[in-house]
Design brief:
Blueprint (H helix, E strand, L loop, with lengths): L4 E8 L5 H17 L4 E4 L11 H5 L12 H13 L2 E9 L8 E7 L5 E6 L5 E3 L5 E3 L14 E4 L2 E5 L8 H9 L4 E3 L6 H19 L2 E4 L1 E5 L10 E3 L3 E3 L5 E4 L5 E7 L1 H10 L9
Parallel strand pairs: 1-2, 1-12, 2-3, 9-10, 10-11
Antiparallel strand pairs: 1-16, 3-4, 4-5, 6-7, 8-9, 11-14, 12-13, 14-15
């Protein structure tokens, strides 16, 4: 049975220190639960955001076929079970068939601490921006299967999974809606250069055109590595958008959790009043 559910999106500034990042994530998860969240989304690269080669050391195999979870996923599962909260882990480094190309995965852990779903990022971020940002994700990240649109059951209904750069490709979100999604998780580490102009526009567009909630956790600020180096800067502004395109909650500067309610009745009402999803012909 689905019901109106309080959800939270986390904003944090990760670096290459896994224990530090997980301590921050745990503190923010506990804050979100204390403030009423039953489902929380963590941003892309929440456990590790440093040099490209750092991901090879922290990538973990998912606990299938009786395997035990790795230390990062195991710790997150423990939070979910202890606190009775669902977690969406954005940008989780998952070991792939090629160890030099781990997947950038989005995982759903339910309130019992069980892994319920895994999506591997399809659209990889290869850019050379005017501000000097150059990222070639495809050189060190495995591409997910384009045929896999992943939805998972939550307290409020079906949630579509995606990661960051996927946001720019609306076809994916229409496929998620066709699979039953009434909300989309879009954990991200959006660059400052693109985010200041595109983040809000794209998030609201995905919500409006799919008549769904958007749950967009975010990395924020400059990612300074343990050795004091690092120039990458993320835009932040973790937010929740409703199916009409209204921003219900948003983080400001620094760490935080933006909390709002996902209500299946609102989705049903918007889709009935403006039946654009049923009017698609292409």
């Amino acid at each position: 049975m689905t019901e109106a559910t309080r959800v939270g999106v986390v904003q944090m500034t990760s670096n290459d220190e896994v224990d530090r990042n997980l301590d921050i994530a745990e503190r923010l998860v506990r804050r979100g639960v204390k403030d009423g969240s039953r489902l929380l989304v963590l941003p892309e690269c929440f456990a590790s955001l440093g040099r490209e080669e750092d991901k090879f050391a922290v990538a973990e195999t998912l606990p299938v076929d009786g395997l035990e979870p790795g230390p990062i996923l195991g710790r997150c599962m423990d939070w979910a079970k202890e606190l009775g909260v669902e977690l969406v882990l954005g940008g989780f480094w998952e070991t792939g068939p090629d160890e030099r190309h781990p997947y950038n995965a989005c995982l759903h852990v339910d309130a019992t601490g069980a892994l319920r779903a895994a999506y591997r990022k399809i659209h990889l971020f290869d850019v050379d921006l005017a501000d000097g940002t150059k990222l070639l994700e495809s050189e060190t990240v495995g591409r997910g299967d384009p045929a896999q649109a992943v939805v998972t059951d939550t307290a409020f209904g079906k949630l579509g999974l995606s990661v960051c750069y996927d946001l720019r490709f609306p076809q994916l979100y229409f496929r998620l809606v066709d699979a039953g999604a009434i909300a989309h998780a879009i954990p991200a580490a959006f660059t400052l250069h693109t985010g200041k102009d595109h983040w809000h526009v794209l998030q609201r567009a995905r919500a409006i055109e799919t008549q769904s909630y958007v749950l967009a956790a975010a990395q924020f600020g400059r990612h300074v590595r343990a050795d004091g180096t690092g120039h990458r800067v993320s835009y932040g502004h973790a937010l929740v958008v409703d199916p009409w395109g209204t921003v219900l909650a948003e983080c400001g500067e620094g760490e935080g959790v933006a909390i709002a309610t996902v209500d299946p009745a609102v989705v049903e009402r918007v889709r009935a009043q403006l039946p654009s999803l049923r009017h698609r012909r292409l």
